[in-house]
Amino acid sequence: MNNKVTWKPGTMLAPVPVVMVTCQGNDNKPNIITIGWAGTINSEPPMVSISVRPSRHSYKLIKESGEFVINIPSRKLARETDLCGVISGSKEDKFHETGLTAGKSNTVKAPIISECPMNLECKVKQEIPLGSHSMFLAEITSVQVSKEFVDREGKFELGKADLLGFAHGTYVALGKQVGTFGFSVKKK
User: Which of 3, 4, 138, 168 has the most CB atoms at less than 10 Å from its CB?
Assistant: First the structure.
């Protein structure tokens, strides 16, 4: 018995991380764009991808600078995350509109968002035009983590960060930890 329904092909992968990407072009005005299409693509060197519509203001800024910061928001930043996805940085100062703090990056000109638990500073290595979006492949050049989520041994306590995800137009809070890598084969 088949209990599945077939739909036309679509972007049904969910949940995905929702991130706020900060970027800054030649005008030195920082911007924030909310992106649901971001992911890890390589370990050594550490690399990520983001996909941006070429019609977006942030696309131009990333093209000009060749860099950006992926800021990973917590649940308490859901409103700010959404707002940065629906207003245009070409018309609005998103830092001003949201009350978010532009912090200092270590390796790129674009600022971090201080309120986000994690910030990944990135330098573009390649752009791949794909159709509706262009994918930027980037190397992570620095990572900043909020001290409140780091334990005594220096481990990032991900569960305490209360991270935000995205699934089919809905923001979701990520749930409780259910295991760690390799737990299924770990000897007791």
Answer: 138
Tokens read off for 149: 């989520």
Separation CA 136–CA 123 (nearest Å):
9
d(CA 14, CA 186): 28
Radius of gyration (Cα) for the chain, nearest Å?
17
pLDDT of residue 32: 98
Average pLDDT over residues 161-175: 89
Q: pLDDT tens-digit profile of 118-136? A: 999 999 999 999 999 999 9
How far is it, in rounded angstroms, from Cα 148 to Cα 98?
22
Res 13: pLDDT:
86
Between the alpha carbon of residue 83 and those of residues 80, 94, 96, 98, 105, the distances in Å are 5, 8, 12, 7, 23
3-state helix, strand, coil in the chain (%, to 5): 20, 40, 45
Helices (H), ranges, 66-150? 78-86, 94-98
- Residues 173-183: what's their mean pLDDT? 82
Q: Do residues 110 and 102 make contact, with C-beta atoms less than 8 angstroms apart? A: no
Collect all residues with Cβ–Cβ distance below 8 Å to 149 and sequence separation of at least 6. Answer: 117, 156, 157, 158, 160, 161
